[in-house]
Design a protein that fits this description.
The chain has 929 residues and is of the alpha/beta class. It has 5 domains: 198 residues, P-loop containing nucleotide triphosphate hydrolases (Rossmann fold, 3-Layer(aba) Sandwich); 79 residues; 219 residues, P-loop containing nucleotide triphosphate hydrolases (Rossmann fold, 3-Layer(aba) Sandwich), CATH 3.40.50; 135 residues, PCRA, domain 4 (Orthogonal Bundle); 199 residues, Alpha-Beta Complex (Lambda Exonuclease, Chain A). Helix content is 44%, strand content 14%. It has 33 helices and 26 strands. The strands form 7 sheets. A 7-stranded parallel sheet has the order 14-15-13-16-19-12-20, sandwiched between helices. Strands 21, 22, 23, 24, 25 and 26 form a 6-stranded mixed sheet that branches. Helix 8 crosses helix 9.
């Protein structure tokens, strides 16, 4: 009996591991085409891009088979008479059909309705790590502003203190758990709610209409369905949506599909609650269960897929008993979610085996695990001797800590192995070579130049690199052109390469024959070559917006000890976390450390899925929320066991340690499965092992180094001089504008103006110079808004910011009035350079600064240095101007005319050459030799 429902019920199918879920989706596509449905009107949605690509390929192969034979899979599908034209049309439409991820489908929906939603149809997509970094920037800015007592968030920031940042960041990570987060009435709840909402609003403004992050794609897609015309357009474009891996969706994604059904879209959902293991990514198995319950009441549940072509008889018998036991006790899944599975195909004739190896002793588990890892290696070696290649084996563990123990034990026993997601990938030499080469293309004088010159793209000797580095920074390119023209030519080529899109830039860098007629890939060994290929695939899968973001990302990941989301390559036994093994299968799968006690740790900030209620440690409702979170973790842990065990095709090997407290964790559940006696399963064995001291790790004799004599300068002390080794000429001589000047040159009015305004002059100067460098016009309406958003204004109050911006606009207006009068008009300048960085080496000192404007009029070079001072004091800047002119004379071959442009007074001051040289000479008297 069915029940009437307010919205159409989806069709739902449970598909256990190995039962041909992808094949069932392919068959469904064939049925739809055979029934006259256009592929362009069907959206196929799955969890990963790789799965979507595989589905597209499989559907294409199936359509080709039907057009050739009239059937598919030896008659499992038989085309109806007269369907030839429909399948021919489908073959033409397949390339343009939408087969994508959940986010890909949402993005397509948003682009379809972009103008109506206020979005740029070509909006870009940020990776989640980029979104977190940008949210952190906005949050940091707010916390800085909130130091002002008059700021509306001052009280919240003060109450939260150092906890504001980590707790708000946790909430941002959990934003896909609910459409809206709700906070309690406690003071910490209120403060955190205010801070988080303000940061999220600032983050949304930062993205604007041109960029979206994954969580924001979900939020905007949900809001889109609240617009009648938008949801009707989407429903008309894709009246049928097939969703795979529905057990992995998060609450926001679930709400999106449920609302989609309300407007008449026919949903067909496939998934396996037993494989819902992505709680750390905000996936919630309750979303699938809600759809399953709804379909049960409406009578739209399809028969479960219950024929496995993956598992041997022993593995399948083990899995059926495991799922039956766990479902009976509601540990991870329910009875309806764990139907018994029968064997099919060739694997139904494969006997296979399952072995449970238990190390049991009164010793601490930490000691037992060392012996357990050694035992695991012994069993892998035995299976290898029986004919299983090491490349066909994998070892799964919950964490990298367990994999490290296994890797050590396998290495001691001489068993080849590779860590599937090894730490330190982004620090590998070949990855850093790529990073440095691209960085030199962006900035040939930056910090990557030295490692680039020493690396394979340049291959200079250390003495040669030292010779390059001994040059003035601005002279290094010229020196390379003289001394190493091939390297200089390569750097110029890299500049062109860096201008490409990130993926194209990496491809060209790796494959172009620029290293003595060979490509970089040709220089690498097998493992290193596979690693850079993995980087290429990773960038293709998650392309950053530009090359600078890619370089920042590589730097960030290189600094993170656990960054390993690009697999390392190699041959031998693969070592993977259980999460990393999802979707894979191996002839022999081993599970290590089944006796681990599951963690009961919960974070101090909890968000209830779907409702969005936020609970803080120590606050009302936290204890209940923490217990609910621990229950979800326990249930997911049991599902993790099922996922790990179901990766095995022929052989499943499980090891565990039982200490003084007996078996715990997964091991305790496995030992309840009655593998001995009258209920024993064919091919399943259990063996207990007493503790034995594991073999010692062989000592490697360290290479002896000759004792070196200490360098004679080790005890020398260099006395500090007047100036730092790298200094700015604008901060010496008579002082910087933010520092006190001698009373003789500082009027009472100026002292009064600057009193209590620490940083005022710097902020004013920064904004004026930037505005002039950008050639902004005062009458441009966007200028005020742009100026008010600059970071240098954050330390000031709202009133002070407005006063500063007004002052900047007045100075900018004065500058514009001088153009064509006191200063040559922009159109008169044959060469015009703004904000030109400059570094001058004199003795042991490096003077750094920025030339405000260097231009050429009628063959004569001019240097203008803009000043925003309240009072005209030219001598304050004689050293700065003298150093700049001296450096430019060496670079240009002619000395420019140097002028100080005092904007308030609209006054030009051109100091005499001898005055400037005297100022430089006097300053350098205090410098170290």
């Amino acid at each position: 009996m069915t029940t009437r429902h307010p919205r159409p019920a989806p069709t739902v199918r449970v598909a256990s591991a190995g039962t041909g879920k992808t094949t069932s989706l392919v068959l469904r596509y064939l049925e739809l085409v055979d029934g006259g449905e256009a592929l362009r009107r069907v959206a196929g949605v799955t969890f990963t891009r790789a799965a979507a690509d595989e589905l597209r390929q499989r559907v294409g192969e199936a359509i080709h088979a039907v057009r050739r034979d009239g059937s598919y899979l030896n008659g499992v599908f038989q085309a109806s008479p007269g369907s030839e034209e429909r399948f021919a049309t489908a073959a033409n439409e397949l390339e343009g059909a939408l087969l994508t991820t959940i986010h890909g489908f949402m993005i397509a929906a948003l682009r379809l309705n972009a103008p109506q939603l206020g979005l740029d149809p070509n909006f870009g997509i940020l990776a989640e790590w980029e979104a977190q970094a940008q949210f952190e920037v906005e949050l940091s800015s707010l916390l800085l502003l909130a130091r002002d007592e008059d700021h509306p968030l001052h009280g919240a920031a003060r109450y939260l203190g150092s906890e504001a940042m980590p707790k708000a960041m946790r909430l941002f990570h959990k934003r896909s758990l609910a459409e809206k987060l709700t906070f309690g009435a406690g003071p910490e709840d209120v403060a955190l709610g205010q801070m988080y909402r303000a940061a999220l609003n600032a983050f949304d403004r930062r993205l604007g209409a041109t960029s979206l992050a994954p969580g924001e794609v979900e939020r905007k897609a949900l809001r889109m369905l609240g617009v009648r015309q938008a949801r009707e357009r989407l429903a008309g474009r894709y009246p049928r949506v097939l969703v795979d891996e529905y057990q992995d969706v998060n609450p926001l994604q679930g709400s999106f599909f449920e609302r989609l059904a309300e407007v008449g879209v026919e949903l067909e959902l496939v998934g396996d609650p037993k494989q819902s293991i992505y709680g750390f990514r905000n996936a919630d198995v309750a979303v699938f269960r809600r759809a399953l319950r709804y379909a049960e009441s409406a009578g739209t549940v399809l028969p479960a897929l219950d024929r496995s072509r993956r598992h041997s008889r022993a593995v399948l018998g083990f899995l059926n008993r495991l799922t039956d036991h766990l479902a009976e006790d509601l540990k991870g899944f329910e009875r309806a979610e764990a139907p018994p599975v029968a064997g099919a195909g060739a694997q139904a004739e494969t006997e296979g085996s399952v072995e449970l190896q238990v190390v049991s002793d009164e010793r601490p588990l930490a000691e037992l695990r060392l012996r357990e890892a050694e035992l695991l290696g012994e069993r892998l070696r035995a299976h290898h001797a029986a004919g299983v290649p090491f490349d066909d084996m994998t070892v799964l563990a919950r964490s990298y800590t367990g994999l490290a123990l296994v890797q050590r034990a396998l290495t001691v026993q001489g068993i080849p192995n590779v860590l599937g997601q090894g730490r330190g990938y982004y620090e590998r030499t070949e990855i850093r070579d790529v990073h440095h080469a691209l960085s030199v293309g962006v900035d040939p004088t930056g910090p990557s130049l030295a490692p680039f010159l020493r690396g394979p793209f340049a291959a200079l000797e250390l003495s040669d690199v030292a010779a390059v580095w001994a040059q003035e920074p601005q002279q290094r390119t010229a020196y390379l052109e003289r001394a190493f023209p091939a390297v200089a030519e390569r750097i110029a080529w890299l500049a062109d390469t860096a201008a490409l899109r990130p993926l194209a830039a990496i491809k060209q860098l790796l494959r172009a024959p620029v290293v003595d007629g060979r490509s970089y890939l040709e220089l690498l060994g097998g493992r290193a070559r596979e690693n850079v290929d993995a980087l290429l695939f990773d960038v293709a899968a998650r392309p950053p917006a530009d090359l600078s973001l890619l370089l920042e990302r590589l730097d960030l990941l290189a600094r993170q000890a656990d960054a390993g989301d690009v697999p390392q390559s190699g041959s031998g036994v693969r070592l993977l976390t259980v999460h990393a093994s999802k979707g894979l299968e191996f002839p022999l799968t081993a599970i290590f450390d089944a006796g681990a006690w599951p963690s009961s740790h919960v974070e101090p900030v909890l968000v209830e899925p779907a409702t969005g209620e936020v609970h803080l440690m120590g606050g009302e409702g936290f204890l209940e929320a923490a217990e609910a979170e621990r229950r979800r973790q326990r249930e997911e842990s049991y599902r993790l066991l099922y996922v790990a065990a179901s990766r095995a095709r022929d052989v499943l090997l499980v090891t565990g340690s039982a200490g003084a407290a007996g078996a715990r964790g997964w091991l305790a559940e496995l030992l309840k499965l009655r593998f001995t006696g009258v209920e024993a399963l064919e091919g399943v064995t259990v063996q207990y092992h007493p503790y034995e001291e594991p073999r010692p790790i062989p000592d490697v004799e360290p290479r002896q180094r000759a004792r070196l004599k200490p360098a004679p300068y080790l005890r020398d002390r260099i006395e500090p001089g007047r100036f730092t080794p790298v200094t700015s000429p604008s901060r010496v001589a008579l002082g910087h504008e933010d520092e006190p000047l001698p009373a003789a040159v500082l009027t009472a009015a100026e002292r009064e103006l600057e009193r209590g305004r620490v940083g005022w002059g710097s902020a004013r100067g920064t904004l004026v110079h930037y505005a002039i460098g950008q050639n902004w016009k005062v009458d441009d309406e966007e200028i005020v808004r742009t100026l008010m958003s600059q970071e240098v204004l954050f330390p000031f109050s709202d009133a002070q910011r407005q006063e500063l911006v007004d002052e900047v606009l007045a100075l900018l207006a004065a500058y514009q009035a001088m153009l064509g009068n006191e200063l040559p008009a922009l159109a008169e300048r044959s060469v015009d350079r703004a904000e030109l960085p400059l570094a001058v080496r004199r003795g042991e000192l490096v003077w750094e600064g920025v030339v405000d404007r260097l231009y050429r009029v009628d063959g004569e070079w001019l240097l203008d240095d803009y000043k925003t001072d309240v009072q005209v004091v030219p001598e304050r800047y004689h050293l700065q101007l003298g150093l700049y002119l001296e450096a430019l004379e060496g670079a240009l071959g002619a000395r420019p005319r140097g002028r100080l442009v005092f904007l308030r007074e609209r006054r030009l001051v051109e100091p005499a050459k001898e005055v400037l040289e005297r100022a430089v000479s006097e300053a350098l008297e205090f410098a170290p030799p």
